[in-house]
Design brief:
26% strand, single chain, alpha/beta
Length: 168
Amino acid sequence: MSTDIDAIDRTDGTARRSRTDTAVTGAGAGRFERVLVVATDDPAGRAAVSTAVGLAATHGATVDALYVVDTTEGWDLVVERRERTGEEVVEAAAEAGAAAGVDVEKWFRYGAPHQEAIDFAAAHDADLVVVGSARRTGIDRLLHPDPVPGRVRRGVDAPVMVVGPDDG
């Protein structure tokens, strides 16, 4: 069973939901064929990987696990540390996929995370983009007023699912 929003109720402006049966009969038979997950090493990023693998298993899809080493700020030492972290994150995504019977392709990019995710989604025809939420506090809000999930959501043509740390 899947829940779809069919229409907006004209009396109060709320969305009505109707349930429709969706039979998944094999690989590629679901609504999504390629799910891009922007993998990060934080609770929301791990929840995003878990969600993407679960959706891919349901829809018979392939997961592209993308880790972006943010080179827009930081020194060589920081970039090297992020590279090691990224390798661990995409390996964990591949292991989660193997456990669920889902093909996970591991990808590694350098640059601004939101721009690399947008470019990757367009180049690889992602049907869905899953990204962890940005729970920011304090000075980070001032330094980065526009977080990665919002930028990705505005930049891609595919639907974007933002996953919180407790959603995985």
